[in-house]
Amino acid sequence: xxxxxxxxxxxxxxxxxxxxxxxxxxxxxxxxxxxxxxxxxxxxxxxxxxxxxxxxxxxxxxxxxxxxxxxxxxxxxxxxxxxxxxxxxxxxxxxxxxxxxxxxxxxxxxxxxxxxxxxxxxxxxxxxxxxxxxxxxxxxxxxxxxxxxxxxxxxxxxxxxxxxxxxxxxxxxxxxxxxxxxxxxxxxxxxxxxxxxxxxxxxxxxxxxxxxxxxxxxxxxxxxxxxxxxxxxxxxxxxxxx
Length: 242
Fold this sequence. Notes:
Elements: H1 3-6, H2 8-24, E1 35-43, E2 47-56, E3 65-80, E4 88-106, E5 109-125, E6 135-148, E7 154-163, E8 168-179, E9 183-194, E10 197-211, E11 214-225, E12 230-241
């Protein structure tokens, strides 16, 4: 696997999870906020963190209209290399994106679409001349979100992200049932694909936990990748609306 694949793996999805979390728990929020600020962290064989915002440009955060979403993230990763001594290299990535978009509803289902520029910077140790992700790369990122309440006590979400700075596709499906009138709990599955790397995750999530004005999403489970590594993953996302 190369960092060319790995670089975009977390920076976009972690920010997206936070923005989607804000929308999916809108029923617990007042109708007037137009800003949401979010942060995410997750770990497995690598570690990534991000922070960002989503801003309603033509109305409230939970109303149909035009939006602007931005994020900044950083992470560390390792990967197999054919050319460096020892066969493995480590990388550090810093990335950002800024995506205008739109959000609209049909019944109990809300749809979101965003597209805009992204930039990533990779530092590799030791230097890996076989890695196309080294240095700074600009690209275009697109995102589709769907979140739905089929019944008053259920939540279903779907997300698809594609980026060209480090060409990749990432998708996630989740479903949840509301427990204790406090949060949604249920299964999730995500998949990532790039020219030379694949990853599948299967796990559970708890979405909508609240504490001191913050809303949280916790997730964890099993991950399998094309580097022949199998292990656990865990993630934490939080947001606040204003």
